[in-house]
Amino acid sequence: MATGTTLDFESTQNYSARVEVCDTGRPVLCSYATMDLQVKDVNDPPVLSGSSVCVVENSPAGSPVGSPLQGYDEDIIGKTFGGWYNLTYSIEAGDSRKVFRIAPLTGQIEVARGTRGLLNYESNDANRFELVVRVSDQGGQGEPKLHAEARVVVDVTNINEPPIASPQTLQIAENAPRSPRQSDE
User: Fold this and answer.
1) pLDDT in tens, 110-144
2) Considering the domain boundaries, does residue 149 fall inside one?
């Protein structure tokens, strides 16, 4: 172990060091001993990277949005206490209209409500969402729960939508001039 090295349970759990102790007498007398050091595991925070995903406009409720997010927790290496490396996901910000939901155990974002217009490529307030997603561990053994947050940008992609025709009642004066017609009518 070098001076200035950080102890990390996930990389090395045990160290062995040979210690030499000498006095200042004449002759100098020394004694040697081997010390075994065990590194105590503590809860490390999980890690979550930001990402960009796409969803088709007007997608129905339950439609997946991209692939599941992949949080990571170094504590899985030691597996000393079960809760530290069991991760859960939540949407913390960026979805005031509750358009999306996230599966707490898998990190899969889905469309929560398939209401027409909530995901609309042609609308500036419904074609891009910047979600803040949190991944949390479970803490345990007197350790607090730790978390990390990342930004997930959801872009709405365009589809060809049929035009909407509304019933109308129009009035036209009799003997009104005819509009020019195509030659095939």
Assistant:
1) 999 877 778 989 888 889 999 999 999 988 777 78
2) yes
Per the DSSP assignment, residues forming a β-bridge with 146 are none
Residue 115 lies in a domain: yes
Any long-range contacts for 123-127 (C-beta under 8 Å, 24+ apart)? 126/156, 127/57, 127/155, 127/156
Q: Is the pLDDT of residue 162 over 90?
A: no
Per the structure, how many domains does the chain have?
A: 1
Task: Write the CATH number for 76.
Answer: 2.60.40.60
Cα separation, 118 vs 45, in Å, equals 34
Residue 116 lies in a domain: yes
Interatomic CA distance for residues 157 and 53, integer angstroms: 10
Beta-ladder partners of 160? none
Q: Torsions phi, psi of 46, nearest 5?
A: -70, 170
